Description:
- By secondary structure, the protein is α/β, with parallel strands linked by helices.
- Helix content is about 45%, strand content about 10%.
- The protein has 24 helices and 13 strands.
- An 8-stranded parallel β-sheet has the order 8-9-7-10-6-11-12-13, with helices on both faces. Strands 2-1-3-4-5 form a 5-stranded parallel β-sheet.
- The termini are far apart.
Amino acid sequence: xxxxxxxxxxxxxxxxxxxxxxxxVSLEGLSWLEGFSEGQALRRAMSAGAAFDEAWIVSAExxxxxxxxxxxxxxxxxxxxxxxxxxxxxxxxxRATAAxxxxxxxxxxxxxxxxxxxxxxxxxxxxxxxxxxxSVTDVPLRARxxxxxxxxxxxxxxxxxxxxxxxxxxxxxxxxxxxxxAQIARKAQTSGSGLLVAVMGASGGVGRSTVAACLAASxxxxxxxxxALDGDLQFxxxxxxxxxxxxxxxxxxxxxxxxxxxxAAAVHPDVPAxxxxxxxxxHSEALAETVVxxxxxxxxxxxxxxxxxxxxxSDAHAALMEMATATLFIIDQRAGSVRAxxxxxxxxxxxxxxxxxxTFALNRCAKDAPFTSADVSCALGGVRVNELEEGGLxxxxxCGGGLACALTASGNAFVKSVESVGHLVLPSxxxxxxxxxxxxxxVSLFRYLGQRRQRQRRRQRQSNExxxxxxxxxxxxxxxxxRWEQLR
Length: 488
């Protein structure tokens, strides 16, 4: 049984949902939602035994939003209390935390949350009603994506508007492709403080999941709180590489959003948490639109999120690459893999995805391979291609046995090359070679050297000012000037 949600808003907003940013939505026709215009009416309904899983408080005619939220918590309501406010000040957030409010939404985030929830309820009802996968896939992909509206200014005429278009190439107009999830991705990119690495590939069998597992395990071994997210919803097997017997799946998160929080709370030190693909293949199409939302929520709970993806690209993959901190593109030394990569990069250029931030890695590099990294670099237009060395049978044996963490600790040549790529996609985490001063501050070598150079230049400017004023260098700056000349 899918739980119901209580929505508290003024009567005018309940009658005209467009005032809430929800045009073309009839709140009365939603069986899982019940509206209340007064806070006291909502409290009386709950005390009379009305069962709600969540309460969304936008406004009330008799109480303030924060007072109503606090009253629901005081009454013993155990579900989620979500407060919508346009004031994102520290005082408002502090009051909400003191009142025990579970989530605070901006008006734009509320619209996004409502759209995703409405489609999630529709998919769950279809699954519970025993609908076939054909009945789900008959709906065009563009019609299934959540439509998010916000108060953000629209792009001026002549600028490229990315939202509301599909990345699938349309016949007759190959340049009309773009991303319907771009607006979601831009908001999600600023919602969490964690780092998101999207591990992509344009063909199957390139070792994408193995690279993602080793990267996640290496990041966890360095003390980060890591989530290995399996975005290959059809045939993902990322949890098997870590030996997870009963993993948390996308099905679980779709039914219970708190499952992701429980997964973050139960993560073990030095071992990444795993969010697995759905148990049933027929659920993958219905859950495809949740990948971006779940990834955005995961960045609020984890330091690093490593998202493995499937070979079949979709709207969610484009949005995932846009919101990612870094994108790691895996290729192998087959001619078909290189051609597929060229085809994928052409698509990225057509839809406006910046590919300059991509990091390319050539997997299974061996002496007798038909292509070298230089050959692949030439085929891709001169981009830098990093080599991932062949790890031998040890990689297949340990990953096949669910011992990806043991493979990371083994010092295998493949693992070392993955960690070298980690310096590029996560430099603040994989910067191991640090001085004592830099290690105390917890910064990587690259950042520390940059800070040291800035300090040296600042002291040089100060020394020059003293020379101009007095005609002689200050004795405290003499040694610094000598070292500066050596560095130059």
